[in-house]
Specification:
By secondary structure, this protein is mainly alpha-helical. It has one domain: MFS general substrate transporter like domains (Growth Hormone, Chain: A, Up-down Bundle), CATH 1.20.1250. About 75% of the residues lie in helices and about 0% in strands. The longest helix is centred in the last third of the chain and has 30 residues. The radius of gyration is 22 Å and the shape is globular. The N and C termini lie far apart (about 55 Å).
């Protein structure tokens, strides 16, 4: 009796969205390390005859130019596919925003594998980025994941449910990053460096795709319960029963969008440059060190989850977001002055709670709209972040290239300032929620 029960429980857990998240992130972290090292290798002989750049500065410019074009394609192409797939998801096809992008993940991994094995030009990855974008990409996949997590939980536990997904995402990334550098170094006379790593990555993503098609369980949720929970205040701060607002709370939605865009602008701009920054002097990391550095970034998922569990007992969701933004701002201000590997890890340690803001903002957004438009709203947010990427990618890239010779860390200081600006709309949301609580107390009296 015990064994069948355990098997049934294990099979039920296997069919949850968390399994998809773990498999996809494992494959993606292996791919990220491989792409980073392949781009470094192909950029080592880059030259710019019309400039007076050193060899290292030329390599950095070639790398950042590639990432700028590659990331712009990934952010621009998925816009229409993401909207279409989000509509399909809200009309009942909840697997579509997950299955279709995962097929793009598999194809992009295979493309880089072909680039390594057959020594194809690195520009092939621009075509792979287009295919990945047409499948919906991350801006379709992640809202699809968050929609399933959101609709499978109550409004009270929604922040915790979303952070649980982020926790597993980070744990899988941590494991994948730790082994990625070692797998990249496995090669022989007949195998190019990185072949083993990319083969494993492609197989894991293929397994993830098959799981989402045949095993993923989609919980049916009625429209009545979520629509009755469209309020901002967590239960610990509600002293009297409140009437849930009808429809969308547009003011809060706009403020939350503004905060998310500013924070994503800061984080995305810094991370866009960080991968190239650690590969230049004085850090000059190897593949193994790149994996460890990526693992340090993934550790933030774990510490942010612990932060949510601890802090949500005594502070509101708005305060949680403020803590996370302040954590990122302080860490990347220190990152501006990093000149040694140990200083990098010290700067990363200050960003312990930097991943709290985005899932908490998504949680608050999902409580401002009816369940019937939850998936579409989260996708609109993801698309807004993509448009922000179209601005911050070339901006931070050109600023970094222009400051390489006198202050390479200037972009990190700039991202810290922008993160602080993102705290302004969140503060306004906090003031509005305080007024709402006061109004409820008056009604209760």
């Amino acid at each position: 009796m015990v064994l069948p029960s355990l098997c049934q429980t294990g099979f039920t857990v296997l069919r949850q969205i968390e399994t998809v998240v773990v498999l996809e992130q494992l494959g993606s972290t292996l791919f990220d390390t491989a792409l980073q090292m392949v781009v470094k290798d192909r950029s080592v002989n880059a030259t710019y005859p019309d400039s007076h750049r050193s060899r290292e500065e030329s390599q950095q410019k070639a790398m950042t130019d590639f990432y700028m074009a590659y990331d712009l394609i990934i952010r621009l192409v998925p816009i229409l596919p993401a909207l279409l797939l989000a509509r399909l998801g809200d009309r009942g096809l909840r697997r579509a925003p997950i299955v279709v992008p995962l097929s793009g993940y598999v194809l992009s991994r295979l493309a880089l594998l072909l680039v390594v094995v057959f020594r194809l030009p690195l520009e092939v990855m621009f075509g792979a980025a287009v295919v990945f974008g047409l499948s919906g990409g991350f801006c379709t996949y992640w809202p699809g994941v968050m929609t399933l997590a959101s609709l499978g939980s109550t409004a009270t536990d929604r922040s915790k449910a979303m952070m649980k997904v982020e926790l597993l995402y980070g744990a899988a990334g941590l494991v994948g990053s730790l082994v990625s550098g070692h797998l990249f170094l496995l090669y022989s006379v007949s195998l190019e460096q990185g072949t083993v790593l990319l083969t494993v990555s492609a197989l894991i993503n293929l397994l993830c795709l098959l799981h989402s098609v045949f095993l993923l369980q989609v919980k049916e949720v009625t429209n009545t319960e979520p629509e009755d929970n469209c309020h901002l205040l967590p239960p610990a701060y509600s002293e009297a029963p409140a009437q849930a607002p009808l429809g969308k709370n547009l003011v809060n939605v706009v403020l939350l969008f503004a905060a998310a865009i500013l924070y994503d602008f800061a984080v995305g701009g810094a991370i866009e440059i960080l991968g190239s920054f650690v590969l230049k002097e004085p850090l000059n990391w190897s593949a193994t060190q790149v994996g460890y550095g990526n693992a340090a970034g993934c550790m933030i998922f774990l510490t942010s989850f612990v932060g949510v569990i601890v802090f949500r007992r005594c502070v509101s969701d708005v305060a949680l977001i403020m803590i996370g933004m302040l954590s990122f701002a302080s860490g990347f201000y220190f990152m501006s002055f990093v000149t040694a590997t140990y200083m990098f890890y010290l700067a990363r340690s200050l960003t312990l709670f930097a991943l709290i803001p985005m899932p908490t903002i998504r949680s608050l957004l999902s409580q401002q709209v009816p369940a019937s438009s939850c998936g579409t709203t989260l996708t609109y947010l993801q698309l807004a972040l993509k448009f922000a990427g179209l601005a911050y990618i070339p901006t931070f890239t050109k600023i970094y290239q222009g400051t390489l010779d006198w202050f390479p860390g200037f972009v990190f200081m700039l991202s810290s300032i922008i993160a602080v600006l993102g705290m302004i709309p969140i503060s306004i949301v906090g003031c509005r929620s305080a007024q709402t609580r006061q109004y409820m107390r008056i009604q209760g009296d």
